[in-house]
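Weekly puzzle thread! Below is a chain. First person to post its structure in token form gets bragging rights.
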Amino acid sequence: MRLYYREGRMAQRLRDEHDEAIAAVCRLPQRDRGAFWDLVGHPGERLDVGGIGLGQISPDRTRHLYEPCDESGPTALIFAARDLPLRGGGQVLDLVAWLPRSGEIFCRFGAVDVFGEWHLAVPLVLDEPLVVFADPGSWARANGAGICILDWARARSSLRHVPAFLAPDVDFGRRLREMLVPQIPRRPRILVPRRLCAA
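Winning reply:
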């Protein structure tokens, strides 16, 4: 018996938006295309990352989400966040927009907190440090050979089990340490209605 995978509407929508972003790169003049590839590496080298495109976005800075928009918004690099490497048949979970000049990162739906999440098991299995990249561009140039943190607040719980990290520089290493150091949680007050205290 043969099983067929039927892509859901949301996955189809993400794939269509990603395809449009990749097509926008193909429409760039040759000199601009060279500058684009300097940011993310040559396309033939990125077997695990998949296609990277361009698109105008309308960012929601409070929720770290974005909507595609017309030419009035800033131009962002659009990445597909996958559950597995592209060559491993990975499915697109979300799209990620990166503004290289400001360093801001926005997700389309907020479904992922790190690029390259399949690497999270490496330190447990091989007793090697987990490679962490400072931004999506350096992650793409390295062909996704580690992780890139997209949502620092949510990634904290995913990274607690990792015994060692390999950071690209001292400043980023300090930032990573500050993010991972457990904050002393504020103890909540526990209130009990007075009528139940007597019972």
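Puzzle host: Confirmed. Bonus trivia for everyone else. Confidence is low (pLDDT under 50) at residues 1-6, 186-192.
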